[in-house]
User: What shape does this take?
Amino acid sequence: MFTAEFLITSLIVVLIPGTGVVFTVSTGLTQGHRASFFASLGCTLGIVPHLMATVLGLAAVMHASALAFQVLKYAGVAYLFYLAVVTWRDRTAFAVQLDQGKAGAASLVTKAFLLNILNPKLTVFFLAFLPQFVEPGVTSPLLQLLGLSAVFMAMTFGVFMVYGFLAHAFRKAVIDSPSVQAWLRRGFAGAFAGLGAQLALTER
Assistant: This one.
């Protein structure tokens, strides 16, 4: 079940930069490693509904229903463009925040969670991806799907944490340079907008 092929493929999928990576890196740069932990946690939790949909067979319904797919897709597009606008218009200088309070942590987890839960391509992806690694003729495919899902989530969390901590490592240089801050802010805003446009143009 947990073959080298599954582990390598999962790692490649998780490493590919997407909305979660952009959000985690931007959070690590602007708010530090503790904040990037909550961003990573939220992104990982956002995968859970998609995995459960796949495991329980609901992904097939969404794949067949154009309306369900389109509604979720455009909700995700709207949220990505919202993040792009907010990031572009933010003129607050990046600063060291030593204390990330409960409200801040909850907000980060919620934002990251919404990023992934509003991406219908994840459900379709897991529908096509996970069943390939279930052993043929197994008596309990549900348990195997749950096991594969747990490993994928753990890998996602670990990789996102690495992304966030690497961003934090370069934080001092970013904080000391207003011009770098401006370019990074524009870059993150453009990345969110580009990911939103890509999602909007995506077909089932």
